[in-house]
Amino acid sequence: MGSLSQELPPLLAQDLKIKIQDSCMVLPAQKTERRSMLLSNIDQVLNFSVETVHFFPLNKDFPPHVVAEKLRSALANILVTYDFMAGRLKANPNTGRFEIDCNGAGAVFVVASSDCTLDEIGDLVYPNPSFKDLIVKSLDGLPLEKEDHHDQPLCIVQVTSFKCGGFTMGLSTNHATFDGLSFKIFLDNLAALASDKPLVMIPCNDRHLLAARSPPRVTFDHPEMIKLNIPLGQDSNSNASIFDDTQEGLDFKIFQLTSDMIAHLKEKAKKALGGTQNSRYITGFNVVTAHVWRCKALSLGDDPERESRLLYAVDIRPRLNPPLPASYVGNAVLSAYTTAKCKELEEGPFSKLVEKVSEGAKRITDEYARSAIDWGEVYKGFPHGEFLISSWWKLGFAKVEYPWGRPRYSCPVVYHRKDIILLFPDIDNDNGVNVLVSLPSKEMNKFHSLFHKLLDLKD
Known about the structure:
This protein is of the alpha+beta class. The chain has helices at residues 41-44, 64-81, 118-121, 180-194, 236-240, 259-271, 284-298, 342-347, 350-362, 366-379, 441-455; strands at residues 18-26, 35-38, 49-56, 88-92, 97-102, 107-114, 155-161, 167-174, 225-227, 251-257, 307-315, 333-341, 381-383, 387-391, 409-412, 420-425, 433-439. The protein folds into 2 domains: 18-210, Chloramphenicol acetyltransferase-like domain (Chloramphenicol Acetyltransferase, 2-Layer Sandwich), CATH 3.30.559; 225-455, Chloramphenicol acetyltransferase-like domain (Chloramphenicol Acetyltransferase, 2-Layer Sandwich), CATH 3.30.559.10.
């Protein structure tokens, strides 16, 4: 079946010896119209940065300085179509909502270098804390004009060259601007412009497509949501605090599931069904999520009556009537949920848990999605559960075709959060998945034991 990559962390470079060589504010290549861009109720609660790093090996035809110039030019051009990425997030004092002021202020572009080679970094899959240095967080240390420091840009790009000739492209974007699917399209378009080609897909920037109904109609209960005490937009820090990294000491570990292990989990779920048509919901995502759910919930304690609520994101583009365009820019995802008592998670058939995960996504119909959006209009809140599974598994960031080739690996810069578990692809096999877990030591030991035991490869 393969082996689980759950050993102690490999030796990792803790200091990448990054030096900033140059920085500038990149403006749209053409003048854009000044406007205010509506943010949907889904976007409203996602005012925090998402950081990704994309690793590229040496390409003699594209040394890092050539890559930097091509990306700088491509960024200026893409800011014409994605004009909001050159804007700034503002709170509207009249409505108490966040909006994007599409003012053409620009995106930050940074060129940096490292005294390390990519090989010296260590295992790219492992969440190396030093990866945070591959994307600048603050403009304070950059040689930019003073007026550039007043507002936080919505997009920062950093190209870092390594001694071996390889390089990284680090991007920081505000989550209010993109979900994972629309960010992938953004990367495809950026790569196309860097290749002097037309856009791969024209983005649909109309956030009114996910505006609340007037008047709002909440037609479902939404136990996956919790109300905010502070109105959205009145305090820009109120939303950020929801997603702050915890100061609690956490261990973090990667649990690898190979394609053979995932196939084993599928077979395990199908056994109880006798090969009936109901097995159609036994997908890779559903079995991995059910397995992780069991391990995480049972690692928290021994109360069999405690109810565990799992959250995970579901793309609503194809679920609406009419469907949203596939090119819709913005957050078109809602949190599906499923619940079970710990007794059921421990003793119940695995197939039942897989079915519960499937039913959580099935619940999100057009009317349910509209009701959830309207709930946000009425109550001002955000998703809430015991923990969230955030899947980067099938987004395809490492399949983007840049002029210098595809990334060797693409990954998020990891959040220090015990209530978020990340799924992301294996470096060599998209059919395998890496499960990143952060937990206090005692809970991590329990999770580790359960992960082995409940996988049951001898089955």
